[in-house]
Design a protein that fits this description.
alpha+beta; 20 strands; single chain; disordered N terminus
């Protein structure tokens, strides 16, 4: 597909050769990172285009001068003295740099968190901010033993139908919450705990589970401390909870494939600008939070002050007032080498007021799968052609089909490079795809009554090439990270 806004042409894609292959007759099982003769390619990103002067000037490939027999010195002694002097200067410079790094970076503060055990691919990124926990830490007991509270942030999730599931220290499993004794205060408390500002709706639903969590009269700010295990729920009723009215379109008329979007059609679509230029897309998921791709935020572009977020725009020539960014958080397990877990969360300085033009997309249920062939949509402001300098000022949309990971990992597509945290969507025959400048934008699929952000635009070989569909970060696989991060950064 298409999209990007910049004053200069976008950088070229890294290329992966597209070989002529026989048509796909059946699924071929390929395990990521293994198999006879399988080598992991260096996957190309949908490369964000930053303002070339202030962020990342284009660097041409360094070519050493030809090895000619030109005399650089008057005699050998002079050459020897010059070489020794140069070596001494370089040695002193290296020592100075080492001292600066060793003693300087530890006091630096940053708006981004990393786990240095996973930092082999991100050597230029800032040092991680680790949570400090006590030796007696117990997860999901309602007591924050860790300084940042990470021991209590992976204790609430939603199943199909927004079924509320809670993990407690008593059992260690995620169990449904019984509806008996439920009220709006509980709903608001849980949604606030998760990083939303209040609840939207809750109701009782029938459950087939033989065990549940019964609400108690205990007082705590965390739901995992206010429930007890019960052998069964009264009337087999459990809680279905929705924290946001999400996934609703104000405009539903559209043309299949690569067309200009209308206002209100994809109200969760955002345009992320770095120092005045569109470089990536984003997805509104809560009044205070935006999802995007981790690779949109290299070490040279981590200051939140340099970013502005625009919502409700269908043309980059008519931008509304921007939202400002308070904090940029990258997934600590993101790998720039494999593109695995390519996801970021932006916390805004102020909550967004939703209207007809700006609405959040729904987060999917845990482990939610859309089957092979499901028609979904992707949108963004990226380029219309991988090799073209022509950019799209208009928000573009295109329908793409979910492609089974076994197909996408077959040797004639991506040869095992698609991890369990990714999904493929597009057309194997080519022609419909996301492209440069779409990075971080949404892949959405429609449920019974709402649209769910299923993927985040991440990488691909070219745009719209045969047997090279778009690859997206799989949101359902990374829900624990999303909810945990929102809880730690909640308003």
């Amino acid at each position: 597909m298409a999209k990007h806004e910049s004053n200069s042409p976008p950088p070229p894609y890294y290329s992966i050769a597209v070989h002529t292959q026989p048509p796909l007759k059946s699924y071929e099982e390929v395990v990521y990172g293994s198999g006879p003769g399988l080598t992991l390619p260096n996957q190309p990103h949908y490369i964000p285009q930053y303002p070339p002067i202030v962020v990342a000037p284009q660097v041409t490939e360094f070519r050493p001068p030809p090895k000619t027999k030109k005399n650089c010195c008057g005699n050998n002694a002079q050459c020897y003295k010059a070489s020794v002097s140069a070596i001494l200067v370089l040695a002193l410079l290296a020592v100075a740099i080492w001292l600066g790094v060793h003693y300087g970076t530890r006091s630096a503060t940053t708006e981004i968190h990393y786990d240095d055990s996973k930092n082999d691919d991100n050597d230029n990124l800032p040092l991680p901010e680790h949570d400090t926990c006590s030796n007696s830490t117990v997860e999901c007991d309602g007591i924050r033993d860790c300084q940042l509270g990470s021991d209590e942030t992976n204790c609430v999730r939603f199943g199909e139908g927004n079924i509320l599931q809670v993990k407690t220290a008593q059992d260690g499993r995620f169990l449904p919450v019984c509806y008996k004794g439920w009220n709006e205060n509980y709903a608001n408390q849980i949604c606030t705990q998760l990083g939303f500002r209040e609840s939207y709706t809750s109701k009782a639903v029938k459950s087939q589970d033989s065990i549940g969590l019964e609400l108690t009269s205990r007082t705590s700010s965390l739901i995992q401390a206010r429930v007890n295990i019960s052998s069964s729920c009264t009337n087999q009723e459990t809680v279905s909870l929705q924290c946001l009215d999400c996934g609703k379109q104000q405009s539903t008329s559209r043309i299949i494939g690569g067309s200009v979007a209308k206002i209100g059609q994809w109200p969760w679509q955002l345009s992320l600008h770095y120092k005045g230029s569109h470089v990536c897309g984003g997805v509104m998921i809560a009044p205070d939070f935006v999802l995007s791709a981790a690779h949109c935020f290299p070490s040279t572009a981590l200051s939140p002050d340099n970013w502005k977020v625009y919502g409700g725009a269908v043309s980059l020539d008519q931008l509304p007032q921007p939202y400002l960014v308070k904090k940029i958080i990258l997934n600590e397990n993101y790998s720039s080498r494999t593109n695995d877990q390519d996801i970021a969360l932006l916390k805004l300085t102020q909550p967004v007021t939703f209207n007809d033009k700006v609405q959040p997309a729904c987060l999917p249920a845990l482990a939610k799968e859309f089957p092979h062939g499901t028609h979904c949509w992707t949108s963004g402001f990226g380029t219309t052609e991988a090799s073209s300098g022509v950019v799209s000022k208009d928000l573009m949309e295109v329908t793409v089909d979910i492609i089974d990971t076994r197909v996408c990992n077959s040797r004639w597509v991506y040869g095992g490079a698609v991890t369990r945290n990714m999904l493929c969507a597009g057309k194997l025959e080519g022609g419909k795809d996301s492209c440069q400048g779409d990075s971080g934008g949404p892949l959405v699929c429609q449920g019974e009554s709402s649209w769910y952000v299923t993927g985040i635009t991440s990488w691909g070989a070219g745009c719209g090439k045969k047997n090279k569909p778009g690859v997206y970060t799989k949101v359902s696989s990374l829900l624990p990270w999303i909810y945990s991060t929102m809880q730690q950064e909640r308003p």
